[in-house]
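Okay, any thoughts on this one?
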Amino acid sequence: MSDAWFVLLAVLLLLVLIAARTPIFVALSVSGIAGILAIGGPGALELVPLALVSQLQEYSLVAAPLYILFGEVLAASGLGAGLFAAAYRWFNRVPGGLAASAIGSSTVFGAMSGVSISSVAVIGRMAVPEMLDRGYKPALASGAVAASGALAMLIPPSLMFILYASVTGESIAQLFAGGLLPGLLLAALMGGYVVVRAKLAPAEAPGAEERFTWRERFAALRHVLPALLLIVLVLGAIYTGVATPTEAAGVGTLAAFAVTGLLYRSLDRATVKRVFASTVQVSGAVLAIVGSAFVFTQMLVLARVPDAVAEFVVGLDVSPYVVLAAIMLLLLVLGCLVDAASLLLVVAPVLVPAVEALGFDPLWFGVLLVVNLEMAVITPPVGLNLYTMKSVVPQLDIADVLRGALPYIAIEAGLLVLLVAFPEIVTFLPEIIA
């Protein structure tokens, strides 16, 4: 039996294990080890510990638990409530102002946390009950938060870009820069959508009765200043060359502890214990997936799958953009079945050589990949943001959450088209800082 058949059987085993609700890191490890054993024999099994050690000792991965801790500290600070209150004072007279405020808050919080479910949990816990109390339809209220929470994956500092850099060798700082403009553009498109929808169907988003003076609006900005300072501290340290992305994560985390403890007085003993426990749990899960995904990737490398895919793609007598469109559609389908981090870690080593062979920039493709993965977190049956939204606001019907998120999939697909048509949206800032 050829190596190609062994790879196919390993992939089928992976899908069966996922369908059986086996933990994803176990599914990746078992199918990867089985494939390595079948292709290379018992002697090839020495690749397994080597793969685990070589990937998990990657210096850039140190940033992952630090940014997760950063987000957990901020989630406990009460900063999210201040962001939402400030945004509402500025957008309350806009149609769908509460939903627009939630999107704005998620954008700023995502620029600090880097983890989408943290953003959904923090902003959703405050914004969605407020919208429901004011007569917003559940689908509109929950969809705005579930979808905009995914902005944390695209706007730096992004955990997805850290993982992409760890398997492709791209610069984390360059990826952060490449994701900034697309992230802000996507936030604007999402905000524009809720405003237009509220204007066309006012019953879904009743107008606000409160009036705020300009003094009150500017006074509310004091809640935004700590967030902006943290963002400037982290990104400024990276792009001025003062610190690497990993070092900036440490600096930002210390600053987040200072803001949360000294400014918001939110760090009692129980909170600190909960923050570290949650960080260990999330970090352990992420790093377990990273290690097991690399074992699976080593099986693919052993069978020369990346080289074969690149050769096949180059040999196709079609436009490179047709191939790119097919890749994006495939990722959308796979994103419905596999969580975003696992999917990125498995497909990036296979697809990036093919994309480079077609003449595309791997950094640009990384941003496209993350936008595609944003769709994955709001599509069933694995859409983590949907279930996070349901868990923080239990009275919601999951069908309403899903229905509210669907229009944003179309918005993100539209952004993909824009990024393909105008790659400068991605490459402009990285070229400046290069």
Q: What stands out?
A: The mean pLDDT is 87. The longest helix spans residues 269-302.
